[in-house]
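Here's what a typical entry looks like (Membrane carboxypeptidase (Penicillin-binding protein)):
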Amino acid sequence: MAALAYPLAAVTGIGAKATAHAMEQKTDILRTAMPAETSYLYAPDGKTILTMFYEEYRQYTKLSDMSPHIQQAIVAAEDNRFYQHHGVDPKGVARAFVANARSSGVSQGASTLTMQYVRMALRDSAKTPKEVQEATQQTSLRKVKEMRMALDIEKELTKEQIMERYLNSAYFGHRAYGIYAAAQIFFSKTPATLTPVEAATLAGLVKSPSAYDPISSDQKEATGRRNYVLDRMAQLGYLSPDAAAAARAEPIRTRVTTPANDCASIDKRYQSWGFACDYVKNWWSAQPAFGENRLERMDKLRRGGYRIVLSLDPKVQAAAEKNVGAKENTGSPFANGIVVAEPGTGRVKAMAVNRNYSLDLSENGPSSNPEASPNIKANYPNTVAPLLGGGSLPGYQAGSTFKMFPMLAALDAGMPLSTAFDSPHRYTSQVYDGWSPSNASGAMSGRQTMWSGFGKSVNTYFVWLEEQVGADRAVHMAEQLGLRWRTDVDREHASPAKAKKWGAFTLGVSDATPLEMANAYAAVAADGRYCEAIPVNSITNRDGTPATYRTASGIEREVAKPRCRQVVSADAARAATDAARCPTGDTPAKGSCGGWSTADSVRGTVGRPVAGKTGTTDSTRSAWFVGYTPELAAASFISDPDNPFNAVGDGQSQIPIQAVANTLKEALKGKPVRQFTPPSDAIVG
């Protein structure tokens, strides 16, 4: 006979087969087990909920924050002797035994609220499918174990504690786990404000959420079940007969709420922040603090009850969105995006691109890639692809913005800013096996230093400079500043066996993301101190404590705190900044820019000291600008993510320059003007 047919005596009979160790182990789990809880992503104000992450929509709620009606209703519906028994109800067991014997099956249960809680706690703490099956399977041994553990639990927890845990674990249907979710989904209110009618409706759902569903059904069954609970509440003295009769006469009035889940359902007011939300997920999946692998980490996000505060600055984000036409220019195959990072912390302050963050691709046309299948949709106007970085996409060739890396490597190796070379229009390299790159213009020929070579973007000067310091050191510098090689070609060239011969590295033939480039240049702005990119201001556990991790040296640190290290000397970084003021039309503290530059309008637009670098690729397939002040670093690009051979053209190469300049101007409006620290005379030369 099924487990429900066993009398209470079975607790000592079959229960003896379970080892004392196993029982003690599971009892320990029950003492501490917490059900899965929804994680919340907040705007930077720490109050505005942007979206949630969950498998089971649940928010743990204290008993004191629940209406007494729901506590009374659940007792009436499931276990009217809850406050009299000690975990197992002998009368209920006997009644079920007789009823089931007469029906030759399971017609009546004997599970108390405590036993039901045991079952839910074992299910919620299960780590494998087998453990889930063992916690819920209909066997006599499982039932007896439940009884034994219920008796033990009642010695450890008060009735109020059991009631609180039960109401936070129970499933009410429509993905509502726990009373908070149920009150929200069915009635759009908090558990504290539930009326007797609403409480009875919800309590009635626990027995069979689908059979008594007041939303999907015609409410006949739901009303019948609700009225049964109301009658039981009256019999137990929780409601007067008149109040119960009045409640029975009321229709069930639901007010359904569909809770947001994941980045695609982010609040519409902040829909453009979906790309930053998506980066939070990708960043989270790489954090060892949340598990040993991606699967465990994402499970923690959806079940751990974290409170995550996004690092975006609303003012900076608004400026970034405006200056890439995030809302207006979504109909172009060319993606124009920008990322803004904070020097000294690595916190991401803005992520914007001229795309709608949406899973709905129905209005997207065919891909611009001629080799793509006709069924492949373009990435515009809607996409959830991580076009700005932080995901699996390789990025875009970044052109001459990469000249920063050999310059930093040279400065860090002791070469001064005044290092000069008579740069020809075309240079034949003996180090790189006769490779002969040329400059974009004959006007770039002549004697150059780091100031003028960087300001005019002289290819032949930087190929020569890279030869002097070693291409492998330039590649290593980029890696130290956060760049990662995501294509087979880039990985091969960056390998120790090939890096010394990667002469074209300085010309930006490798793919990079705007997130990487903004953060790399932010390290230069921070006097050579590189900070890992981080998309959050804080992460707190469900108990309100900061989420932490333990370093390899055993030090406990907060996950959301900046993680920084000195990559180059402060003097080398300051020297690189002095040279990087030349492309923007700014005036360096120590040297000469040579009379002209590639983005000389930037200083006038920003209206304060600013450094940066332009970058274009062959045939202007993509165009970049990375610019920074002491406070912010921004990287903007324009390219076709679907087809890198679809050239944006020279006419659009100014777009990233304007996007960065105007974003920095508007983001820093009203803030005190800060100066760059000049390099020492020793490194100037």
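DSSP finds 25 helices and 19 strands in the chain.

More examples are in the samples folder.
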